[in-house]
């Protein structure tokens, strides 16, 4: 019996020491005796970018500025409110809310209604093409060269569902966002997320389509899915290991196993001593 208990303790010690991490693996910027701090450099993978075409319910920020202050107040009635909300916000999500309140939302047919100009169809256009269309309409009221127009998306809005540390609907105030930046905005994937098969639901002018992405494959950097698009939905499925129990990582599982074995060993020791 004592021999058996001794073996149990040996197994526990092996588990304990194997889980220890040296400080050398944790401390940044150490004095390392190597010629180069770069461990390895991979091949350069070219981006595969595609133009984004405006879709119904997209939010666009349209700025129209002229030399006439009265026209400026008419073309941009939300400018002051937008600046005030930007000062009050202080975060990506707050800025996104400001765009929602003060930007222009394409209706279900792809139209926006601008002051003085009226309805303009922007569906299926890039932001550059939309700017050209609006410039043509503004030139009916203002001489060419006496106005400035800027059209941009009101940030990149997407949804993160499933095994994220902070899932939800997120807005990043950038014109271009990688899928890894989107994951970082949701505070990374949980330890149980299936990283080799992330589900991406993407909206197209004719409908929605499901794509499955392998985050472990570096070829993703050169694919059309490296950059997310407005209204993308990213769903992280859980690994099958979740079905085993409620523990979230190996350390918790090891702790539970160690505690159980220790308890059994203690009981066996008490029984052996009593005999």
Structure keywords:
alpha+beta; 20% strand; 7 helices; 275 residues; 5-stranded mixed β-sheet; 3-stranded antiparallel β-sheet; 10 strands
Textual characterization of the structure:
- With 275 residues, this protein is of the alpha+beta class.
- 33% of the residues lie in helices and 20% in strands.
- It has helices at residues 2-18, 69-75, 79-89, 92-102, 127-138, 179-185, 250-274; strands at 59-66, 104-105, 111-114, 118-121, 147-153, 156-162, 168-172, 198-204, 207-213, 232-236.
- The strands form 3 sheets. The protein has a 5-stranded mixed beta sheet. A 3-stranded antiparallel beta sheet has the order 2-1-5, sandwiched between helices.
- The longest helix has 25 residues, at 250-274.
- The protein is elongated, with a radius of gyration of 28 Å.
Q: How would you describe the shape?
A: elongated
* Order of secondary-structure elements: HEHHHEEEHEEEHEEEH
Query: What is the count of helical runs?
Result: 7
Output the structural class.
alpha+beta
Beta content: 15-25%
């Amino acid at each position: 019996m004592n021999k058996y208990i001794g073996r149990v303790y040996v197994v526990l010690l092996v588990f304990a020491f194997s889980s220890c991490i040296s400080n050398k693996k944790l401390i940044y910027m150490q004095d390392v005796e190597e010629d180069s701090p770069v461990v390895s450099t991979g091949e350069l993978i070219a981006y595969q970018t595609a133009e984004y075409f405006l879709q119904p319910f997209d939010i666009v920020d349209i700025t129209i500025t002229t030399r006439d202050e009265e026209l400026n107040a008419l073309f941009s009635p939300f400018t002051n409110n937008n600046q005030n909300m930007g000062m009050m916000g202080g975060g990506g999500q707050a800025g996104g809310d400001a765009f929602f309140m003060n930007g222009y939302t394409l209706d279900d047919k792809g139209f926006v209604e601008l002051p003085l100009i009226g309805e303009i169809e922007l569906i299926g256009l890039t932001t550059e093409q939309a700017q050209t269309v609006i410039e043509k309409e503004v030139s009916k009221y203002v001489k060419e060269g006496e106005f400035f127009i800027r059209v941009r998306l009101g940030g990149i809005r997407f949804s993160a569902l499933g095994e994220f540390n902070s899932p939800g609907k997120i807005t990043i105030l950038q014109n271009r966002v990688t899928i890894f930046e989107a994951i970082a905005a949701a505070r990374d994937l949980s330890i149980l997320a299936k990283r080799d098969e992330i589900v991406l639901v993407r909206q197209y002018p004719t409908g929605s389509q499901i794509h499955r992405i392998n985050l472990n494959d570096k070829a993703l950097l050169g694919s059309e899915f490296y950059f997310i698009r407005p209204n993308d939905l990213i769903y992280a499925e859980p690994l099958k290991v979740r079905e085993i129990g409620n523990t979230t990582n190996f350390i918790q599982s090891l702790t539970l196993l160690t505690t159980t074995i220790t308890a059994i060993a203690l009981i066996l020791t008490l029984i052996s001593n009593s005999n």
